[in-house]
Structures
1.
Amino acid sequence: MLKEQLRKNLDKVIWNIEQARVSLSEHHIVKLVAVGKYSDEENIKILYSLGQRAFGENQVQQLESRTKSLEELPLEWHMMGTLQSNKINKLIELRPTLFQSLDSLKLAQALNQRLEHKNQTMSCLLQINSAKEESKSGVSIEEAEDIYAEITESCPQIKLKGLMSIGAHSENKKEIQKSFETTYNIYDKLNKSYKANICSMGMSNDYELAIQCGSNLVRIGSKIFK
Ligand SMILES: *Cc1c(COP(=O)(O)O)cnc(C)c1O
């Protein structure tokens, strides 16, 4: 992809984020994580040269090859895909900045045990299935607060920083909005009781709406790389 095209895409996304966040509050800061799964390392390097520092992947294997080949760049890496239990050790080895898709208590306990063994900690977000969709992973809305508390109390190697959610898969803006509002309401409670400070919601097709609903981290792939 041409550098000029990537610059244009990135500028547009940054501009839209800016509009959305200022409409909420000038003090509302939003982080952009560029999701590279549709793209390649060359394009990630170009984005780096344009100032982007945070990148995300949804597969451990891809995360591994990219963190290794782009090792010389001061990037932060976010993992945001379903983690199979046989990939836990690999993920720990890669020391991601943030593991955004911790999606069950069982996975948390398994991850905690391996982290303990390696004397490491990992910053994570609890993924919630805010639109109650079969096709998506994540804990249910009803259980989210209890599971968050349980992980905080029983998994000392896991540093929970907040929530991640994928907006409802729908053409209906109201439904998408509702899924974001539901996530934000839970986040707001966790912010007060557990100092959670990351509410990760919003992708290429819905990030402005997500920000208006309180998101402070958006994960954008296709609008940047396609
Ligand atoms: C792929 C992916 C994204 C980015 O998706 P786009 O719609 O291309 O912006 C964000 N979050 C997760 C969890 C993803 O897997």
Note: The chain has a mean pLDDT of 97.
2.
Amino acid sequence: MRRTKMSSKLLVLFIILLLNLHPLASSDPDPVQDFCIPDTKPGSIRTGRFTLFPCKNSSEATPDDFTFAGVKYPGNFTANGFSAISVGPTIFPGLNTLGMSFVRADLAVGGVNVPHFHPRATEIAHVLEGTVYSGFVDSTNRVFAKVIGKGEVMVFPKGLLHFQMNVGDSKATIFGSFNSQNPGMEKIPFAIFGSGIKGELLEKAFGLSAEEVLMLKKKFSPKGL
Ligand SMILES: *[C@@H]1O[C@H](CO)[C@@H](O)[C@H](O)[C@H]1NC(C)=O
Ligand SMILES: *[C@@H]1O[C@H](CO)[C@@H](O)[C@H](O)[C@H]1NC(C)=O
């Protein structure tokens, strides 16, 4: 009798623990159907920035809904020799509800992917071509960085600052995969100097003069993105 009481108490405790642990382990929700190709016909529901589309009848889905050719070639390069084509469900509808997305990134010789992070996803970066100094910084400010080459992979844990630079003598191409359909991205220079944070705060935070802060604000204003 005592024993049964004891074990049912333990069971309740275990269930409470499981319920509490669950949010820690959560990410994109698990799909409840094979796939959901968004039906973009007029009549969809708009909520603020997001548009919620119903799923197309699955009998209307075709192989083209699940293939994508938009990463065959590099995108447009920035002044620091970087190009990225980010692919999520808005441009590749077959990804919708699958909890994944990806990016093709190209770096010219010496090109830099500036320090940034993805608040909602871990990234696996696979070097398809070239030689890349690649790394991330953990929450104790320890840097994990190394030069990796064609065929090698680096993982950037969710939410941690990471960066890449082409240190080879030819172009580099990287394919990055995310475990969220909407990983989000904050690029540090733009998030800090291009976001409209009060100059006085930035002067104090970084020990810069008003002129230096103005110069950086100009350099990283949103149109520079
Ligand atoms: C989906 O399409 C099939 C075949 O055309 C049809 O039988 C079915 O009723 C449709 N389902 C819905 C929910 O409209
Ligand atoms: C590159 O820039 C051109 C001109 O602005 C634009 O039409 C094109 O869509 C861009 N390509 C990509 C992959 O963003």
Note: Residues 190-220 form one domain.
